């Protein structure tokens, strides 16, 4: 007679730790099949959480993700693994990471991974403004929100790591001001660490500090970053201009940025 059991949990998301927990349960209970039941309310829908669980467990024939356990009398276990995306990211396989970012899941938690609280508040504000501007100009709002949240992902990386990226990936930009390194490194970091493949997002992040990307998304991200209301100065008029005419707003923002840098002696 086949020996089966189930394990339930929020699985927000299902990670390698959950996988190891399931495999250990199969071994310790000598199971022929373990049903993985994703349940409970979470910010990420149960449909996405089920898909992630399937991506993580599909290589193991004794594990099966289900939406309901038909036999209520089989042994049932509760997952003991804590759900925390900031800690869990390293415990997701590549296919799952790509699914997560392609569906714009857990973006706030991902943005928090490398940032201190002050910088995190900045990117949240930039993301909201990016989404507002995207809505005004027919740009994918989710894509703009993602770019806004993750544009500073390399801002607080160790300077030695930044320099290593610049030496190996962007030697042609090594001579620019070090305050700009994070835009170049950030683009590569999004691709390698966060598994983002969207070229529009990667290019917008690559030039978000210098405004060299003149695509709609690039202009939106540049303006949202520079005009972020949380920076503490009144940018309302320029934001209003960006909403009504993105190109003029972008040009005005670039001019204001040049004037600021000149005033600070950085130009």
Descriptive overview:
The chain is of the alpha/beta class. The protein has two domains: 4-99, HUPs (Rossmann fold, 3-Layer(aba) Sandwich); 106-263, Orthogonal Bundle (Hypothetical protein af1432). It contains 13 helices and four strands. Helix 1 (16-28) links the parallel strand 1 and strand 2. The mean pLDDT is 93.
Helix content: 40-55%
User: Which CATH architecture of the largest domain?
Assistant: Orthogonal Bundle
Q: Measure the end-to-end span.
A: 78 Å
Which structural class fits the helix and strand makeup? alpha/beta
Assigned CATH superfamily of the largest domain: Hypothetical protein af1432
The low-confidence runs, each spanning 5 or more residues with pLDDT under 50, are none
The portion of residues forming beta strands comes to: 5-15%
Largest beta-sheet details: 4 strands, parallel
Roughly what is the average pLDDT, rounded to an integer? 93
The sequence of SSEs as H and E is EHEHEEHHHHHHHHHHH
Radius of gyration: 22 Å
Q: Main sheet: which strands, in order across? A: 3-2-1-4
**CATH fold-level assignment of the largest domain:** Hypothetical protein af1432
């Amino acid at each position: 007679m086949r020996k089966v059991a189930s394990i339930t949990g929020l699985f927000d998301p299902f990670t390698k730790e959950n996988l190891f927990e399931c495999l250990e349960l199969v071994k310790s209970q000598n199971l022929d099949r373990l049903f993985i039941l994703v349940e409970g309310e979470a910010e990420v829908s149960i449909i996405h959480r089920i898909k992630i669980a399937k991506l993580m467990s599909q290589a193991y024939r004794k594990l099966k993700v289900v939406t309901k356990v038909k036999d209520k009398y089989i042994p049932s276990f509760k997952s003991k693994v804590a759900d925390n995306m900031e800690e869990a990211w390293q415990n997701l396989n590549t296919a799952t990471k790509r699914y997560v970012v392609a569906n714009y899941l857990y973006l706030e938690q991902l943005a928090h991974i490398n940032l201190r609280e002050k910088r995190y508040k900045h990117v949240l504000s930039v993301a909201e403004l990016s989404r507002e501007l995207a809505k005004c100009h027919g740009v994918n709002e989710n894509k703009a929100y993602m770019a806004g949240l993750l544009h500073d992902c390399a801002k607080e990386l160790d300077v030695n790591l930044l320099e290593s990226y610049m030496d190996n990936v962007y030697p042609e930009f090594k001579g620019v001001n070090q305050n700009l390194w994070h835009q170049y490194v950030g683009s590569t970091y999004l691709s390698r660490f966060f598994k983002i493949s969207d070229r529009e997002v990667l290019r917008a992040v690559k030039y978000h500090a210098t405004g060299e990307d003149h695509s709609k998304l690039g202009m939106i991200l540049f303006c949202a970053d520079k005009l972020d209301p949380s920076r503490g100065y009144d940018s309302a008029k320029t934001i209003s201009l960006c909403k009504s005419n993105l190109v003029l707003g972008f040009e005005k923002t670039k001019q204001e940025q040049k004037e600021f840098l000149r005033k600070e002696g950085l130009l």
